[in-house]
Amino acid sequence: MPSHQPTSGMPAVDPAKLSHIPSAESKPAPQEPVRNKNYDPKKPHITETPLTKKNWYKHVNWLNVILIVGIPIAGLITATWTPLRWQTALWAVAYYFATGLGITAGYHRLWAHTSYSASLPLKIFLAAVGGGAVEGSIRWWARDHRAHHRYTDTDKDPYSVRKGLLYSHFGWMIMKQNPKRIGRTDISDLNDDAVVVWQHKHYLKVVLFMGLIFPCLVSGLGWGDWMGGFIYAGILRIFFVQQATFCVNSLAHWLGDQPFDDRNSPRDHIITALVTLGEGYHNFHHEFPSDYRNAIEWHQYDPTKWSIWAWKQLGLAYDLKQFRANEIEKGRLQQQQKKLDQKRAKLDWGVPLEQLPVLEWDDYVDQCQNGRGLIAVAGVVHDVTDFIADHPGGKAMIKSGIGKDATAMFNGGVYNHSNAAHNLLSTMRIGVIRGGMEVEIWKRANNDGKGSMIVKDENGQRIVRAGEQVTKVYDPPASAGAA
Fold it and tell me: Keyword Magnesium, does the record have it (predicted)?
């Protein structure tokens, strides 16, 4: 597929005209000149001052309060006496999905993560309907989102869920933020994109037309419902698409599973996916952000992925990025292993071999003759005193191994004990016999070199898999006491 470059219909980018756009990646601008005698460049930003009853109103971003809270409330009130016609309802839902895709497929996957490339017509469409969602310009949105990925759950994350679910949902917009605290990111590619630059420069015009005027025109010219188009397809549709997008910052970091990594907050959940046009598989997304998909299983809901795929078939999108299945499965397996390690750490696997005292054979025999119920299996001494009465094979059988080398007895000489029996026996360890074949087995079990039998989890604890217990010896040597 040949590369698509912006052609006619979009002004060429003049670098000199980009100077009006503040860049978090550029060098700090010269200090702004003093505008009045009360100006103090060293005065802390309002967000760095305590929130009190007297100054709380200074911490509020009142413009965003009006846009995000005030206007939707006004729309809800007006809707109580504005009839909803079925044509307007269908149009509002259709435009909801269109503007939602402008955010998910456009702002998010195309521009913030460059997970695919788009032709000029598709770029213009996504920039237009994305503006109709009224969530800021592409440049502003993508810049903050890249910071969110780079600094997830930290103070440099613009909408960190660690500051509270409501804060990550919309509190970060209605409360003033210190722009210096937002993590730095590279958006030079966005500054070179003519569509992004044009939309940023004319953002207010795009918002007014695509957010309110256009849906009103469709309803008015289509079936004469001007007021319904303005209220339902305009104001209320904006409110619902905004809340859906906000859920990616809040709900997707709070509800669900973490199949790929649990070091940070992103999670996967079908409910979030249904609300956000497929952005709910957020744990996968944070692990593989440049993948054009959020959902990788056929049954998972991701209409944004399906739309991008369909655009590719139409020649509108190309270079769709996917992480290799091998890498995805490695990440999934590593997280599964981590969860297993966490469960394993809660279980009693017996005293680690390297922490056991070393006993002489004569000392072992002497303790048994003095009434202690000890048996030696594969060079490891176990105290079975309290288990003799509960032994499924009977008291006489287990007593016959006391004071002897019961390796062969335990491994098929009398009875080839089960995996559960080996696990239970490991919890009764008290020491290791010095000398003989048995200690060689112990040495191999603790050897970290080639041919080591020992595997440790991320906590440094030995992983004991079925069939790998120290006491399980294949083709055991004949030993005293074998019946």
Answer: no
pLDDT reported for residue 59: 65
State the total domains in the chain. Answer: 2
395 and 267 within one domain = no
Residue where a domain stops, chosen among 334, 366, 400:
334
Q: Compute the distance between CA of residue 267 and CA of residue 256 in angstroms, rounded to an integer.
A: 5
CA distance 266 to 279: 11
Asked if the structure places residue 207 within a domain, the reply is yes
Kindly indicate the confidence band of residue 461, based on its pLDDT and cuts at 50, 70 and 90.
Answer: low
Q: Is residue 471 included in any domain, yes or no?
A: no
pLDDT of residue 38: 54
Which neighbouring-strand residues pair with 416?
411
Same domain, 57 and 99: yes
What is the chain's alpha carbon radius of gyration, rounded to the nearest angstrom? 34
| The pair of three-digit structure tokens given for residue 460, joined into one six-digit string | 């440094």
Residues 59 and 47 sit within 8 Å (Cβ to Cβ): yes
Whether 329 and 388 map to the same domain: the answer is no
For the cut 50, the answer to whether the pLDDT of residue 15 exceeds it is no
State the average pLDDT for the chain.
83
What is the residue type of 405? Answer: D
Q: Half-sphere exposure (CA, 13 Å, Cβ side) for 378?
A: 21
Task: Check whether residue 74 and residue 196 sit in a common domain.
Answer: yes
One domain for residues 320 and 375: no
Q: What is the pLDDT of residue 456?
A: 67
Long-range CB contact pairs, 24-28, < 8 A, 24+:
24/143, 24/147, 24/179, 24/182, 24/184, 24/185, 24/187, 25/184, 25/185, 25/186, 25/187, 25/188
d(CA 412, CA 113): 60
Instruction: Report the helix count and the strand count for the chain, using DSSP H and E.
Output: 22, 6
Confidence of residue 442 (pLDDT cuts 50, 70, 90): low
Instruction: Answer whether residue 449 shows pLDDT above 60.
Output: no
**Domain around 181:** 46-334
Q: Is 92 inside any structural domain?
A: yes
Question: Of residues 219 and 468, which shows the higher confidence score?
Answer: 219
Instruction: List, for residues 263-301, the tens digit of each pLDDT value.
Output: 999 999 999 999 999 999 999 999 999 999 999 999 999
Tell me whether residue 469 is in a domain: no
